[in-house]
Amino acid sequence: MKTVAARSPLECVTLCKTTPGCLSCNFYASNTSDNCDLNFRSMSSSINLQLQVMENATFYSIYNPRDCNDVEVNGLFTVDIAGFGEKVVYCDNGWVVVMRRYDNSFDFHRNWASYRDGFGDPNDQFWLGNDALHALTNQGDYSMQIDMKSCNGNYYFVKWSLFRINNEAANYVITDIIVDSYNTSTKYRLAEVLGWRFGTTDNPVGSCPQNHGGGWWFESCTRWQLTGYYPVGCSGTAGMKMAAITGNNCDNGCIIQSGTMKIRRNT
To answer: Residue 103: how many CB atoms within 10 A of its CB?
Structure first.
């Protein structure tokens, strides 16, 4: 929140509309200075510049964006996803962060319902939720990017120019995926997941979720996964990995210590 001076409610609203990331504002008519609070979160998406009386202030809700494209600051925001509704997400330079993981202190080996609904803290380690991810990727065309740090100490990224999944009834199968750019040694298996379904230990794809850990898109298991068993001591290739880093099935260089997965609407 940022507090500024405004001469009228209209000026307060105008300041909010022209301030990157401002989604609502409070105007205090009794104050002569510092009487306009610019908020980076909206109370509700069901009102548009509708007035509400709040403890000696008038509240103005501008809107809830449908994703992070129009949000110009980083942090938690409420978005209004078509066919889904409101969801608190972490915005990172216009990207909706889908998951974040950086150590072994948080458990990603969870059941189907947890991956469907999402778990964790969007400010910390978490999974957004497959229902929300499905709705997001079906309200437009979205790119996806994975940023990661390997056990070889280097940082890598892979970007797909199109990523889309189906709904729960179809097991969140990946319906569209197109490789765009990467700094891994090859694009080995980066698009192989097209047509693959999501699996967890209680809704498995063979023995893959049990063998690799977490929930992910599997077929003949997988060559890249951010939710697998965490590589304590950077050992073991059955969990958190990105085989394209080394250009083959996997060795120590492809094991991932930390990673984020994020999506952004193509404009």
So the answer is: 10
* Length in residues, the chain: 267
- pTM for this prediction: 0.81
pLDDT at 209 over 70: yes
Q: How many Å separate Cα 77 from the centre of its chain? A: 11
Read off the tokens for 179.
């490789």
H or E segment and range at residue 112: helix 112-117
Distance of CA 242 to the CA centre of its chain: 19
Residues 147, 197, 125, 67, CA torsion sign? positive
Question: Which secondary-structure segment (H or E) carries 134?
Answer: helix 130-137
Q: What's the CA angle centered on 219, arms 217 and 220, to 5 degrees?
A: 130
Q: Which residue has the tokens 């569209």?
A: 176
In CATH, what class is 75-265? alpha beta
Report the alpha-carbon distance of residue 20 to residue 25 in Å, rounded: 13
pLDDT at 63 over 80: no
Domain boundaries, given as residue ranges, for the chain: 2-61, 75-265
pLDDT one-digit tens code per residue, 114-171: 999 999 999 999 999 999 999 999 999 999 999 999 998 999 999 999 999 999 999 9
Asked if residue 69 lies in contact with residue 94, where contact means CB atoms within 8 angstroms, the answer is yes
pLDDT tens by residue, 85-122: 989 999 999 999 999 999 999 999 999 999 999 999 99
Residue 105's region, left for phi above 0, alpha for psi from -120 to 50, else beta, is alpha
